[in-house]
Write a structure and sequence with these properties.
The complex is a heterodimer of chains A (about 375) and B (about 575). Chain A is of the alpha+beta class. Chain A contains 8 helices and 16 strands. In chain A, the strands form 6 sheets. Chain A has a 5-stranded mixed sheet with strand order 2-1-5-3-4, sandwiched between helices. In chain A, strands 10-11-12 form a 3-stranded antiparallel sheet. In chain A, strands 6-9 form a two-stranded antiparallel ribbon. In chain A, a hairpin with a 2-residue loop joins strand 1 and strand 2. The longest helix of chain A is centred in the C-terminal third of the chain and has 19 residues. With about 575 residues, chain B is of the alpha/beta class. In chain B, the strands form 4 sheets. Chain B has a 5-stranded mixed sheet, sandwiched between helices. In chain B, strands 4-3-5-6 form a 4-stranded mixed sheet, covered by helices on one side. In chain B, helix 1 crosses helix 3, helix 2 packs antiparallel against helix 3 and helix 10 packs antiparallel against helix 11. The chains are: A alpha+beta (about 375), B alpha/beta (about 575). Chains A and B meet through helix 2 and strand 7 of A and helix 3, helix 4, helix 20, helix 21 and helix 22 of B.
Chain lengths: ~375, ~575
């Protein structure tokens, strides 16, 4: 267990003193709550990292961010280590680089085919291997785990797992679902769901935080979509509920292929199952996309309408016509039956602002307080 | 619970039937209101509640509670594990990862067969292997014991002086033979025999606890006692050798409440000194512990004992109870915690994690345990033997202890000597003694027909030295320049019948089995090292590169020291690998 450096990014900048230390021969100043790695980032010095994910509790287990600190017997993980005044740190010297490269090589050794991840474009391991110039894995490979494709939305391929524990922190500490664990020990230590159950039958609620956290694609959206290069990325807000989680749609051939959480004030890049995986309705041909008005002479029925045969009962209308019609009918009810003849049920998908407007309509327009969602 | 039928096995409680996982029959059919994952089996829940009784369901007692299930049912079924998670208000995944981390818990997943009622563990530590453990193992595996008995290997069980050792359930058999194992199975001797030792009354009659009383009564000051400890030069005898007196001072200056953790997870292959003292004079250790607690101002004490030491556990349980019943002074709460088969829990911060009921994964330092230890409190952590010497040092004075020693070194060391010597055992000898002097003066010389070839000066981690380097004083610091260290003073003596190469492979297999799996250099490094070394023709470049990252970048001492055995082979036994 690592003691977490502070999560807030720069809360302690006021008052507390900066820490002056030397990084690769250059004097730098760290914020009082910054790790060596964070300070290096701010100064444009890149240190490799794998188990580290911005916003998560740093765990310091992958050991690819090792730096040499003058006077210390062994290297230190820059993601967990706070600099101290006068400290002399080297992240690019021979000793630090040797360990950074060796860790990368050892992890690459155990990837399927001892090469780039087959489950994700730009696996973080592959990116760092490229930057560090680690090409070939020279060591014998571990025995691999079988794939787990039991979940409709996510695939589990632990042969690409580097045991960095980001998914465990995602599940346990970020989303507090506590489904993922790291069981057994040593070389056999394994990412598990509940009691090492198939993901699809575990208590997983499919928030997908682990997929977003996984650096190598060992946990990935199902059906290999993480391997597809999107044509474009569209930043948006989740359309489901009123929380307002920000997200990014990855689009290929005008279709959403997968969704990523985006850092917003309401969600800090997190999403729930609906926001992350519930986007297939967008491309459903039966989706209502324009206003429709019941045709003259077609009676109302309690039977479900056949979505493929809507046009026998409805015709397309403009928004103006549809709103006039609906508004007129509501007004007619109010005039006929008074405010008690009306009540309003809004949608839980409405935003806060929409909910406000809706209750305003019901209270001032309808004249009743009977409004809910 | 040890009088079970060893032929038929024991059922895993009524709850052992296969529990359906929600979704087995298609996720969409699930009824509203039923949670995802496993439903809690009501029978299993009742069984677990009965086992736990009115004990607290606190998280830090998870391992203790897992022991109760394992002891009762000889395994831990998924249904029981799920019920325990429910009862302790923990997530199933967290309970599962803890249970599977420790070797002594047999987690039985849905639909899997329960393990046999009897487990014969054959120690495959180096000393036992040199004494024929592999042969014994092969014979036992062909012993035709049927389905009621399983024969497996175990890492060093801390009885290297009586190698080879087999443990039948919890009954250790010294100098084990197939006939011994047969006899134990036949007579259902499945628990550890408790050796004769100095109990509470005898200890008090011999003047025991007088010093503690004098301290608490104010006849001595904490400053004086700490000064005595510092002047004596006693250093931590678990392996790291941190000066004991200075440690007391450091922790004493931290804010209260301060806690204490006693490390008796003696697992370093070749080491058995803690068990030796515990099974003879447990109160000498307890008094030392209480004096330290008094001097430092300790609020509560946690004693962590490895699970393999069943006799010592019986002794400590009884004697702590006797002590509490006749408390010579007001006692802080003393909690005896039981390990569960994990060498790594001898690492100080891993032990703290285990005390807190978690997997034994070492913490990153800083912060150091003196500042942030058990439950986040400042913690005085000591090896058991360090505390064992406190009473004698304070009674006889710092000078007495410091005046011991040889070859320019000071103090006494309890050497656990095993391997090819006439008299293996714990030998209390002057610090700084050389291996040649130790073998000749204390260990009765080499076994007949064996010529001294090399030695491990400090257990599995401390490296291997050749017979030609037999004049090095054995003590802290003196071995560092040779790439070795004395650690817990576990000396394994090799002869011309052994090779350093195969001894190194034995040790690397041990590290591979015992790596916790947290950091890449150790988790992957120990596995790759074993794979390379098993090829016979060692690849020097690959092994050397591995050693660099393991030594420089592992989180704890296990990974940092794991390459020592093979590095020493290259350095001091080059003829074996050329």
């Amino acid at each position: 267990m690592a003691i977490a450096p502070q999560r807030l990014k720069s809360s302690a900048t006021n008052g507390a003193a900066r820490v002056n230390f030397t990084l690769n021969g250059t004097p730098v100043a760290a914020q009082p709550d910054e790790t060596i790695l964070q300070a290096a980032d701010r100064h444009g010095i890149e240190i490799p990292r794998l188990c580290y994910k911005d916003g998560y509790r740093p765990d310091g287990n992958c050991r690819v961010c090792m730096v040499e600190i003058e006077g210390e017997r062994v290297l230190a993980p820059s993601c967990c280590r706070m600099p101290s005044e006068g400290m002399n740190v080297n992240s690019t010297g021979e000793r630090a680089t040797k360990s950074q490269k060796m860790v990368t090589e050892l992890l690459l050794t155990d990837m399927p085919g001892q090469t780039t991840s087959p489950y994700k474009r730009a696996s973080e391991l592959d990116v760092w291997a490229g930057k560090l110039g680690v090409a070939a894995a020279r060591y014998p490979q571990r025995e691999q785990w079988a794939p787990d494709l039991s979940h409709p939305a996510m695939s589990v391929n632990l042969d690409a797992c580097i045991q960095c524990g980001r998914c465990v922190r995602a599940c346990r500490e970020e989303q507090v679902n506590d489904v993922i664990g790291y069981a057994w020990r040593g070389e056999h230590a394994k990412i598990v769901f509940d009691f090492d159950d198939p993901m699809g039958v575990s208590s997983c609620v499919a928030c997908g935080e682990c997929v977003q956290a996984c650096p190598t694609g060992a946990l990935a959206p199902a059906n290999g979509v993480a391997l597809i290069e999107p044509d474009k990325k569209v930043d948006s807000a989740c359309p489901y509920c009123g929380v307002g989680c920000l997200l990014t749609y990855n689009i290929k051939d005008e279709k959403i292929i997968y969704v990523e959480g985006r850092d917003g004030p309401a969600n800090a890049s997190r999403l729930c199952v609906k926001g992350r995986f519930g986007f297939d309705y967008v491309h459903n041909p039966k989706r209502l996309t324009k206003p429709m008005i019941r045709k003259e002479g077609v009676a109302k029925t309690s039977a479900l309408l056949d979505p493929d045969d809507m046009w026998t009962a409805f015709r397309e209308a403009t928004w103006e016509e549809a709103l006039d019609l609906a508004g007129g009918k509501l007004r007619a009810i109010r005039e006929q039956r008074g405010p008690k003849g009306l009540a309003g049920f809004g949608s839980a998908k409405g935003s806060n602002e929409e909910a406000y407007l809706f209750q305003k309509l019901v209270r001032t327009g309808f004249g009743t307080n009977n409004v809910d969602h | 619970m040890e009088t079970i039928d060893i032929t038929g096995g024991v059922p895993l409680g009524q709850a052992a039937r296969k529990m359906p996982v929600a979704g087995d029959e298609g996720r969409r059919k699930k009824r509203r209101g039923q949670g995802k994952g496993r439903p809690v089996d009501p029978v299993a829940l009742e069984e677990v509640r009965a086992l736990l009784g009115d004990e607290p369901r606190r998280r830090d007692l998870l391992i203790e509670h897992l022991h109760k299930i394992q002891d009762r049912y000889r395994a831990i079924s998924a249904a029981h594990l799920n019920a325990l998670a429910e009862e302790m208000r923990l997530a199933p995944a967290e309970v599962f990862e803890v249970a599977t981390f420790y070797h002594h818990f047999d987690v039985v997943k849905d639909g899997e067969a329960a393990p046999p009622a009897v487990t014969v563990r054959v120690c495959d530590g180096l000393s036992c292997e040199m004494a024929g453990a592999q042969n014994l193992l092969a014979m036992l595996r062909n012993g035709g014991y049927g389905e009621g008995v399983r024969v497996i290997t175990a890492p060093c069980v801390g009885r290297c002086d009586t190698a080879p050792v087999a443990v039948v359930n919890q009954n250790p058999l010294d100098h084990a033979t197939v006939a011994d194992v047969d006899a134990a199975l036949e007579s259902k001797a499945l628990t550890a025999a408790v050796p004769a030792y100095t109990g509470y009354d005898a200890y008090v009659a011999g003047g025991g606890y007088a010093l503690l009383k004098a301290c608490v009564a104010g006849e001595r000051t904490a400053d004086d006692v700490i000064a005595t400890m510092e002047n004596a030069g006693l250093r931590g005898l678990g392996g790291a050798g941190f000066p004991a007196g200075r440690k007391w001072k450091i922790v004493r200056s931290e804010s209260a409440p301060r806690l204490m953790a006693v490390n008796i997870d003696e697992g370093e292959p070749g080491t058995f000194k803690d068990r030796f003292y515990l099974e003879r004079d447990p109160h000498r250790f307890l008094e030392g512990m209480l004096i330290a607690a008094w001097a430092v101002g300790i609020a509560e004490i946690y004693v962590y004992l490895r699970d393999e030491y069943a006799a010592a556990r019986a002794i400590l349980t009884a004697e702590i109870a006797a002590l509490q019943a006749h408390a010579p002074v007001p006692l802080p709460p003393i909690h005896l915690r039981r390990g569960a088969g994990a060498y790594i829990c001898g690492e100080e911060s891993a032990m703290i994690e285990s005390i807190e009921g978690k997997k034994g994964m070492p913490r990153l330092r800083p912060p150091y345990v003196a500042q942030v230890g058990v439950f986040g409190r400042p913690t005085l952590e000591h090896n058991m033997e360090t505390l064992y010497w406190v009473r004698e040092i304070v009674e006889r004075g710092a000078e007495w202890f410091a005046s011991q020693g040889r070859n320019g070194r000071k103090g006494l060391r309890s050497f656990s000597v095993s391997g090819r010597v006439q008299k293996p055992g714990v030998h209390l000898a002057p610090a700084g003694i050389t291996i040649r002097e130790l073998i000749d003066e204390y260990a009765g010389g080499m076994l007949p027909g064996h010529t001294f070839y090399g030695y491990f000066p400090g257990g599995a981690s401390g490296g291997i030295l050749p017979a030609s380097m037999d004049d090095i004083p054995l003590d802290f610091d003196t071995l560092n320049k040779y790439g070795c260290f004395i650690g817990s003073a576990a000396i394994i003596v090799l002869s011309d019948k052994d090779t350093a190469k195969s001894a190194a492979l034995n040790m690397l297999r041990f590290f591979h089995d015992e790596s916790c799996g947290q950091c890449t250099p150790c988790r992957v490094g120990t596995a790759k090292a074993v794979a390379l070394m098993e090829r016979g023709d060692w690849d020097k470049e690959l092994l050397t590169d591995l050693s660099t990252v393991m030594m420089d970048a592992s989180i704890c001492g296990l990974g940092q020291a794991a390459p020592n055995p093979y590095l020493c082979v290259y350095k001091y036994f080059p003829h074996e690998v050329s």
